[in-house]
Amino acid sequence: MLLNFIAHLLLFSCLPFYFARQDRWIRTNSFYCYMSALLILANYGSSIYAFPITESISISVGTLVYCAFMMTTVLFVIIERDVGVIKGIIRLLISINLSLVVLSMIIRWTLSNPAIQNHFNTPIEIFNVSLLVTSIGGVVTISELLLLIYLFERIKSRVSNAFTVSSLYIVTFVTIICLDGLVFPLVINPFSGHLISDLKNGITGNFIMAVGYGMPMLLFLVLFRKRLVEYMNQPLLLRELVNAPRKVLIDEIEKKDKSLVLSEQKFRNLAESIDDVFFSMDKDLRCTYWNKAAERYGYTAEEILGKHVLDQFSMPEAEPLADFYQNVLLSKKPDQMEIVLPAQEGFRDFEISAYPYEAGISVLVKDITDRKEMETRLLQSQRMESIGRLAGSIAHDFNNLLVPMTANAELGMMHLPRGDKGHDYFKRISDAATQAAGLTRQILAFSRKQVLEMQVLDLNTVVRDYESMIKRLIGEDIRIEIMLDTELSPVNADRGQIEQVLLNLVVNARDAMPSGGTLTIGTANITLEEPHKEQYGELQPAGSYSMLVVKDTGHGMDSDTRKNIFEPFYTTKTQGKGTGLGLATVYGIVKQHQGNVRVSSEPGLGSTFKLYFQHAEQSVPAPDRKPSSSSLEMGSETILLVEDGVMVRNILREGLEAYGYTVLEAQDVADGLRLAAIHDDIDLLITDVAMPDMNGRELYDEVVRLLPHISVLFISGYTDDVIVDQGILEEGVNFLQKPFSITSLVQKVKQCLEQTTA
Predict the structure, then answer these.
(1) Which of 76, 414, 522, 677 could, after both became Cys, cross-link 483 (CB 3.0–4.6 A)?
(2) What are the tens digits of pLDDT across the range 529-549?
(3) How far apart are CA 639 and CA 661, in angstroms?
(4) CA 277, CA 722: separation in Å to the nearest integer?
(5) What is d(CA 360, CA 332) in angstroms, rounded to the nearest whole number?
(6) Considering only 181-195, 291-305, 408-422, which range has the smallest mean pLDDT?
């Protein structure tokens, strides 16, 4: 029986937790249906069954249900925080009790009629008692309910701590329920001979019920603390219901109206000030608000308010939007989507965020076209960097292979007379190696690992000196126009690399004009007032630039081609007509000069390439490209050669020895340091830059401690930040980039040795 009682108690205790988690419409309707059932059960429950607690105390179903009614009512008031709830509960009590009174009277009159058959022998006295209990009990219940809520209101007006309020609420609830156990027997049957036992049974039973319901009630207040705090911050509900004068209520209503107007004004000011589209719709997707930013997309507020929002779009765009908004309305949860929609300047990417509320949904629309383009450019830039890093590493290894090819072919030609077939074979090998070296230089250029020998350069001079070669390249069917700015400012640049850029652009322009046309090459001083966003996401700073322009009247490029022209190995030419490295090389060289490239082109309208180079801030002396002696005389100095590549080391040793030098050959850093320690007559250190245990710079620092007079020549297959900074050769550093010929090596060696003796 005890378990049965506990099961009933738990069942009635769980319902408030259910109500608190439902939407308002479901919660309200469920609550009033549930309370109606409780009131009916409470009136007839005492006559159905009871739970014996002790030999003298039992708890009727009516008491169990009455306490559940009181607990659920006060918790629902806390959930809703609305005076209308109290009014609704009182109206429900009165209407249910009146209905039960009328029903009991009808049944009592029916059973008292002799003509009516009473198959179950139901005693009329049950309905006599029901009339009394319903009539008086309703008044008592309303009084106790109002007293309980009044005490709750007084507590919340004087105590600010939520835990203290919860504890006092439980004490108050237990007190009122025990009071009911005292009042009800006195009111219902004051002259009964069992009054004392009825009072004892009523107070004790109600105390047990109050404590039993008090524990889940305390748990509810803890779990839903936020609702309790919100209830505590509300004005006194009973004062609004009973005590508040009419003028006070009117004043408070006017105050709330002003607050709502002010709140709405703040909302409108905020919505109108933001730069993103913001609008709201009702549940039928008809526009109820449309901010100023939204008018940029073709519709004013007057044109769209009250209309179906999706009527402004064609079906392909409207369908996914309709599904999205309906899902938000049904789920009642915020959601987000990205979509491409038409705008005044064409199609744009938008991010749509929808937020449901009671009357519909609010929508925030952000134009993310620029962000998407930036993300695309960033990914493209990262991909280019990865390709460049890979290509640079491949070029380094390839250059190490080309050195012995070039050097062996050169030494072979030195030992054979011209006209000899063997000499011709070696010449072919040398020419092929030279072409391969040119390919690796292009790879190093677009990967920005080429070594630059900077000088103060006049771009006009480069164009004039190159004009005759350009005319031979483009053919007679293409007219060339040279338009040079006579006031052009000089730049810091590597002349050979600028010539390579000009050559690649001219060849590209020639191929774009197979039926002839006009090639225009020009220069100008340009000032950018604000930074410019480049194709691959890099930013061209504001400032003064010297601009080199190459323009053709060829077939032009569409947008897809323009996006990919600077990618290595991308070409629109037929197979065998191009490597796809020309424009990638241009881009890499210009970027390594800290410059920028802009391209404008349309199909059938030709293409224009504008190259921007920063003005020279200080003079950089031009490197001396020629040796001091016009002929390669034999040498006699001692050279320490440190190179971890066997083939490269062997051929360099043989080449140097062919010109009379004594070569100490070291296969690694440790071997080089050992030779430097035992030979004090070494005049020059030739070392590879990139080696496993120690780089070339660090090796030189160690050797110079042993041989202070020694000079150094660094060799490498690609730019290394140990020797050069961003590919620009430091002043005074002797460097030779692979692949190189024996002649170039001997010339550089003589130059280094002459610097030492000077």
Answers:
(1) 522
(2) 777 666 555 667 888 899 999
(3) 7
(4) 53
(5) 10
(6) 181-195
